[in-house]
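Hi support team,

I submitted a single chain yesterday and got back a structure, but I'm not sure I'm reading the token output correctly. Could someone confirm the output below corresponds to the sequence I sent? I've pasted both exactly as they appear in my results page.

Thanks,
R.
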Amino acid sequence: MTQADDEGIQAVRDVRKKISAECANDPKKLVDHYMAEQERYRERLLRPTTDQRADAADRLSDGG
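Hi R., thanks for writing in. Yes, this is the structure output for that exact sequence:
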């Protein structure tokens, strides 16, 4: 892993830590926050294609 990768990962961790603190480190509040964000940005979320769903189902049936 390169230093740039490490910095990118650290940036994500920092944001996640900040969000968790804003939710008082309460797991229920954190889930509620992410569910609200998911609803807020529903149109921007990517949906799996039929092929991707089939691949995921195959992996699950194969044990992982």
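A quick pointer for reading it: The radius of gyration is 17 Å. Let us know if anything else looks off.

Best,
Support desk
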